[in-house]
Amino acid sequence: GITPPGASFNSQLPRKPIVKSLVFAVLSTSLVAAGLAAADEPVAIWSAGDQKGVGVASLAVPLEESEFYTDRFTSEAWFEDGSRVWVSFLVSNLGPGTHKLTVKSRWYEAGGKEHYFKKELERSGYTVSNEPFKFAGAGHTLSGTPRSFSVKGAGADGYSFDLDFKSGLAPWRPGTGRTTFGTEALSYLDMTIVQPKAVVTGSVSGPGGKKTLKGYGYVLHTVATVPPYELAKRLVEARSIDTDTVVWVKQFTTPEKYGGK
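Request: output the structure for the sequence above.
Response:
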């Protein structure tokens, strides 16, 4: 089945080699031809720019000055013992200030107890380099390449984790990965499924000591400069990661300005 983003589900750990897994992704807009013809502003759906494939450049954090700029990395992993970790880095210009970073992490014990961490930083409070890629703040660090990605964190309640995400599935972008909005194409949504399904290994340390972990997970990177109210009037996102099949779905209907109904 399809599980909403952020929700837990009881997928079993892979019983077959991850390289045999299948990715099925549906990313689209529900624009009709008549709507596009009547639109005040054009939309280039997953076809703007000329970037093909996924490389280190797809991890870059451009730190743009646009009023509506946001840049988010999301990673999540499920482990054989029933525990789980989720980490989010979000850079945003929304509201006062520019290039503000919010770091969040959630560590779930096997029994379900959650340890939640959140910290907001100004630009001077974190570091980011694009080649080689390394993004660090609030005791958490993302680094590596699309195929070999590291997630480290000193989270809540004395828990810390050191995890390696290694993908047997190729990183993926829908088309060029970028949708632009408007005649001048200054507003955009850019999406990379950095690791659709990864083998995750590492350790977690806490009040009970250090534990070695193994499981599976994913890594996403999304950058946008389009105002949220201009991106979509309806938005559906879902994913399912199972033993042999990975499904990603993202569908949105644009406002009337860009050809919506």
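The longest helix spans residues 33-38.
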